[in-house]
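Narrative summary of target 7.
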Amino acid sequence: RYLGRTPGGMGQRPDGGAEAARSEAARPAALGGNPWRDARFRSLAAFNALCLFAQIGLIAHLVSLLAPHLGAQGAGLAMALATLCAMGGRVVLGRVLRPGVDRRRAAAVNLTIQFVGLALLLAAGGSVPLLLAGVVLFGVGLGNATTLPPLIAQQDFPESEVPRIVALIVASGQAVYAFAPALFGLARELGPEAFFLFGMAVQVVAGLAVMRRARGAA
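Modeled conformation, tokenized:
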């Protein structure tokens, strides 16, 4: 006769009831009609666009910048190493990104690792070990740059709105990073130092965007 009773003074609930109640209470607010009025969406779209802008611009020129120091074949192998590190970075992210982990903070950490890699490339000169270390750190974050924005959308928005959010940030990002190779090429005309500093500056702005904590419409 006790199976059908509602929770009483002992605080008993059906299996999973407490978790469901907490999940309901923590459900993100709906996006609304115009996503660009929502600060959560704007910050996520800016992060996605700027992060990929930096990566595509850097990758487009990195082989030719490494070749004078590593040779043509060595530069190609270095980029293969970056790709391998990107795979490893995704594996690590999958292991550490447990439920409840702040995904925006994880994105900021990912950008920080890449920032350090660019700083090593900037300071390396002709040092092969420093160049390779920079390539490794930059490569670790390559795959996560495309993995994290949809994961952040899942955490910040109701499940029913995630497909629309992901489609919008991908579309708006493409409109921005299509110009990355050309703009990084202009920075490169000023010298390799300006090239890497430009990439680092874009990543800093992307990090500031992803850590913006505003909620709801603004």
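Confidence is low (pLDDT under 50) at residues 1-13, 15-25.
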